[in-house]
Design brief:
This protein has two domains: about 10-265, Aspartate Aminotransferase, domain 2, CATH 3.40.640.10; about 270-405, Aspartate Aminotransferase, domain 1, CATH 3.90.1150.10. It has 14 helices and twelve strands. The strands form two sheets. It has a seven-stranded mixed β-sheet, with helices on both faces. Strands 8-9-12-11-10 form a five-stranded mixed β-sheet. The chain has helices at about 1-20, 30-35, 75-90, 100-105, 125-135, 150-155, 180-185, 240-250, 255-265, 270-290, 310-315, 330-340, 370-375, 390-405, and strands at about 90-95, 115-120, 140-145, 160-165, 190-195, 215, 230-235, 295-300, 320-325, 345, 355, 380-385. Bound molecules: pyridoxal-5'-phosphate (PLP). Pyridoxal-5'-phosphate binds near residues 195, 197 and 220. Pyridoxal-5'-phosphate binds near residues 198 and 219.
Length: about 400
């Protein structure tokens, strides 16, 4: 009976596929591999060619082809942008040279006198941009505990223009309620931006909650191989996209065709990589939770995480990041990370290889000591970006290192 049903469904699907006009929408994994690929009509290469040119010939004065200058547009970058737009279910994407360039580009949507609300535990680079450069241009930013929607609503002023969200946060993996924040934003007619880097486009779907603009550091899970820096801005509103495209061109923040090629290559394996990241991080979190040398584990998949229920509702997976406080603080932490063999002591995240770092003295030093304290980042906090290696090897590596801490 069940087999018959499957066979029938298959026939219908096959018939539909035959009739469907191109481009058809396929399953996520299929789209990741094929979207923006096979654009070479001349030689029909199976991968997307790199167009390493700064400029393109005009047919005649004033009559440009589809591309005129690589800062404004390049076929390799367009291919990546087509792929990135589908990853998030947006209508357009703009690929930038770094995650920070994507974020700094977006800050130009605000003008002197505008007020922005964000979390007090956002990415260190964004925190630096918002505390130093935004005020130089007359844009005021309030940093609040975004886990409490009431606090966010209370922070709204007459000149508030936007809410900048990041969830899960870095490095403590606090979760912001996207539905609640989007509702508040709508009520007060504020634009919403989200930095979706920490989960990647597969595990969190901000457009489903009505978020306006999604930004990524493609350096992380989207590229996934720690061999390029890049960023992306994804939208689903024509007017907003046109403004973003104008800004990227005017500011010159677009990515090079070489980098676009690398990110497009990386993204094809993202669904498979994400599955491995999620499984491995769960195994590591379980190992660390209750370990006698660990004071606290931060991981949304743990029942003890304060927003565990929200995470289950809002996220399609718990992600590949785990952080913990080691007993003995900074000194013990330094000994531990120094004794690891498989984990690389490095900032960044989302690559196939496991990375480990100490936010208090590494990734988050651009935040003042007071800001780090307010965000709850302790000197003995250790952040792990769990790679796609065999989890048993990762656990053995940690066990060896814990033994050396004494
Ligand atoms: C890394 C990161 C960025 C910055 O991206 P770069 O590519 O390093 O410029 C922004 N936001 C988050 C959450 C990040 O992890």
């Amino acid at each position: 009976m069940a087999a018959k049903k499957t066979a029938k469904t298959k026939t219908t699907a096959a018939a539909k596929a035959k009739k469907a006009p191109t481009p058809a929408h396929h399953a996520y994994e299929t789209e990741c591999v094929h979207r923006g690929v096979k654009v070479d009509t001349l030689y029909k290469s199976a991968t997307t060619p790199i167009y390493p040119t700064s400029t393109f010939a005009f047919a005649e004065p004033g009559k440009a082809g589809p591309y005129d200058y690589t800062r404004s547009g390049n076929p390799t970058r367009s291919a990546l942008e087509a792929n990135l737009a589908q990853l998030e279910g947006g209508t357009s994407a703009r690929a930038t040279c770094t995650g920070m360039s994507a974020i700094s580009t977006l800050t130009y949507m605000w003008k002197a006198g505008d007020h922005i609300i964000t979390g007090n535990d956002i990415y260190g680079g964004t925190h630096r941009l918002f505390t130093t450069l935004c005020p130089r241009h007359g844009v005021e930013v309030s940093f609040v505990n975004m886990r409490d929607p009431k606090v966010v609503e209370k922070a709204i002023k007459k000149n508030t223009k936007a809410i900048w969200i990041e969830t899960p946060s870095n490095p403590l993996l606090n979760i912001v309620d996207l539905e609640a924040i989007a509702k508040i934003a709508k009520k007060h007619k504020l634009m919403t931006f989200i930095d979706n880097t920490f989960l990647g486009p597969m595990l969190q779907k901000p457009f489903d909650y009505g978020i306006d603009v999604i930004v990524h550091s493609t350096t992380k899970y989207i590229n996934g191989h720690s061999d390029v820096v890049g960023g992306a801005i994804i939208t689903r509103d024509k007017k907003i996209d046109q403004e973003v495209a104008f800004l990227v061109n005017a500011l010159g923040t677009a990515c090079s065709p070489w980098d676009a090629f690398l990110v497009l290559r990386g993204v094809k394996t993202m669904p498979m990589r994400m599955k491995a990241h999620v499984e491995n991080a769960a195994a590591i979190a379980e190992y660390l939770d209750g370990h006698k040398k660990v004071a606290h584990v931060y991981y949304p998949g743990l029942k003890t995480h304060p927003e565990h229920e929200l995470a289950k509702r809002q996220m399609l997976g718990m992600g590949g990041m785990v952080s913990f406080d080691i007993k003995g603080g900074l000194k013990a932490g330094e000994k531990f990370v120094g004794a690891l063999e498989i984990f690389t002591l490095a900032e960044s995240l989302g690559g196939v290889e496991s990375l480990i770092e100490m936010p208090y003295t590494m990734s988050h030093t651009s935040m003042s000591v007071a800001a780090r304290r307010e965000a709850g980042i302790k000197p003995g906090n250790i952040r792990c970006s769990i790679g796609i290696e065999n989890p048993d090897d990762l656990i053995r590596d940690m066990e060896r290192a814990f033994a050396k801490v004494g």
